[in-house]
Hints:
By secondary structure, the chain is of the alpha/beta class. The chain has helices spanning 10-15, 50-63, 81-90, 106-115, 128-135, 140-153, 172-182, 197-200, 211-227, 245-249, 284-287, 297-303, 309-312, 328-331, 336-343, 353-361, 432-435, 475-499, and strands spanning 20-24, 67-71, 94-99, 119-123, 157-164, 186-191, 231-234, 267-270, 275-277, 290-291, 364-372, 383-390, 413-415, 451-454, 459-462. The strands form 3 sheets. Strands 7-6-5-4-3-2-1-8-9-10 form a 10-stranded mixed β-sheet. It is globular and about 65 Å long.
Amino acid sequence: xxxxxRYLSTEDRAALIPVHAVWEITLACDLKCQxxxxxxxxxxxxxxxxxxxxxxxRQLARLGTREVTLIGGEAYLRRDWLDIIREIxxxxxxxxxxxxxxxxxxxxxxxxxxxxxxxxxxSIDGLAEVHDELRGVKGSFDAAFNALRSFKKYGxxxxxxxxxxxxxxxxxxxxxxxxxxxxxxxxxxxxxxxMGRAADxxxxxxxxxxxxxxxxxxxxxxxEGADRGLLIQPGNNIGYFGPYESLWRGSGDDRVHWTSCxxxxxxxxxxADGTIKGCPSLPxxxxxxxxxxxxxxxxxxxxxxxxxxTRTRTVNDLWGYCRGCYYADVCRAGCTWTxxxxxxxxxxxxxCHHRALELSRQGLRERIVQIERAPGxxxxxxxxxxxxxxxxxxxxxxxxxxxxxxxxxQPLSLVGNSIxxxxxxxxxxLPAKRQRGKSPAKVRPSEPMELxxxxxxxxxxxxxxxxxxxxxxDVKASTRAYExxxxxxxxxxxxLLKLMEPV
Length: 503
């Protein structure tokens, strides 16, 4: 059986193949979303022409890309969107799209399927009242569900994308029931990030400590959804090494866990004017590696500093709590996008389940507070302050010690760029000694560090760990007990099957 197109082989990692491309083909949009990171609405100045788009498709194929997802704005607002789909398929790549669904009519879906579209997803961010309010257009909830129901009719794999805001958590279970009823097979969940219009509405953002409520709920929904044919998939900015990490990131495979930001390694982002980034969500100014009107796609991918930052990132690039974290060398501070737009630099991520759990164990929590507004441009961001406080929100005495695992001398109230950066240029994030005399094309990311599960608490630990740092249990003993229980369960299952055989 063929591997899924997004399967990353050892060869993909070593050769830095951009397996999955996410392409914003226009910023034109028919919605007015309060949480839109790109501030979509009007077309970008100098969006690529049809011929430039088709040439870019061919360049992606030559680089080894296996799947292209079209986004916007709204992809269907480009007159040539079907031509782009046809060329993607003609070049042997799979093609999907993500949409708000407002005017994704059945006729448009039929034409897209005939052009070769294989999968489609709609963004639904709450029940009708919440969704329509967030999306800025009354009736957008019903329109999204109409599109979702039509996908199956035309043979498309149907999915839903939900951004987790402060409003949607109580509605997730009811939403899941509606998605299953409408025929969705996949449900991707990610946190709303403080970029673009979302930075104008900080009240929509989850506080880091709310992960303590969210993650157990998502684990419960994951198991229920799997039993009913719906796969819940975590976005790259949610999770990180809590007790449910392998459950939903690896469908229960203990070997699967977060292994650091993949931007510029096996994913590539494309803006409508031809700007290339390592991830479609990243801000343009510090992370745009060049434009295909000026350079070939291969040159931008292999030879620009802006796309190589994750290839060279080490623990030395981390700061704050993440610098001294147990998982620092595996995780490397999680999602670059989430942290950069909070603090003006990557490397310290408060949206981490492991971190929230460890702080809670010490009677602490973190809260973000906006101190500088965003300027109002696509993919822009403001600036937030990170406040450490008691688990009930009480202020801490100034002499309160920093939580274990935090290797810095940060004050309790920390502004993200309080450590001198030399500006927000991406090059400043890379360790200077590794940049000097070495082309980014020659840099190869290290293989992800292998971890094992402590069966006493379902937390990942380093290989060779004897006493779990989280539950204080004997790791080998808990593994033996788990394996014994699994063997007993299997024997009972086989006995039951035998008893059910016809006499």
